[in-house]
Design goal:
By secondary structure, the protein is mainly beta. The protein folds into two domains: 106 residues, no CATH class; 84 residues, Elongation Factor Tu (Ef-tu), domain 3. It is 7% helix and 43% strand. Strand 2 and strand 3 form a beta hairpin.
Length: 205
């Protein structure tokens, strides 16, 4: 198993990316009176759909080589959210750590090393121990750079990674994905242009 990165293409424009979070929930609708019961389970996963259109021969060759290296669903792909690769807030992009251990399934954390009075905005992404999460409310650090009560989703998967002093990634934080469909294909069009579209789902142990 190998974790790959997207290839660097000659065209600098990014692909169109559809990004989402697939909750692990169950719904039961009573056949007797139509009442609905729901249950939330751990294991929410990020999803992404990448669309590359009208790629020239040089870019097409790189994307095709990348596709076959994925070997269907055997290998992994590390991807950051292109639409917000850095926080909108003023939090430091390096040197931020978890302050105090965080329990499994928790969705609140205290961060240290953020910078005096620095901010994290709702919708900003960060990653800890390989888990990508999104802040769900604005938060502000104190004069010592400690930011308390940072809420996020999805909840912590494994408490072992969210230990005291664990590093926090804020600049291009990634999640690890596999193809949703092991059949990777592309569309070649007249004029030596090619379209690629593939769906990804987050994978973790």
């Amino acid at each position: 198993m190998t974790t790959l990165s997207l290839p660097t293409l000659s065209r600098t424009n990014l692909p169109a990316v559809e990004w989402g979070l697939k909750a692990n929930s169950q719904v039961f609708t009573s056949p007797l009176n139509g009442s609905v019961q729901t249950m939330e389970l751990p294991g929410a996963r990020w999803t992404a759909r990448f669309s590359y259109t009208d790629r020239n021969e040089a870019d097409s060759a790189l994307l095709q080589a990348f596709a076959v290296q994925l070997r269907g669903q055997a290998n992994r792909l590390a991807v950051y959210p292109f639409h917000r690769s850095r926080p909108r807030g003023t939090i430091s992009l390096s040197g931020v750590t978890v302050s105090g251990a965080v329990a499994q399934l928790a969705n609140t954390v205290t961060l240290a090393g953020c910078g005096a009075n620095a901010t994290l905005k709702a919708g900003d992404y960060f990653a800890v121990a390989g888990q990508l999460v999104m802040a769900t409310a604005d938060a502000t650090a104190n004069g010592s750079g400690v930011m308390s009560g940072v809420t996020f989703e999805p909840p912590v998967r494994a408490a072992t990674g969210w230990a005291d002093a664990a590093a926090v990634t804020l600049d291009k934080p990634t999640a690890t994905f596999i193809l949703q469909d092991p059949h990777f294909k592309w569309t070649a069009k007249p004029g030596v242009f090619t379209d690629f579209e593939f769906d990804l789902v987050e994978v973790f142990a």
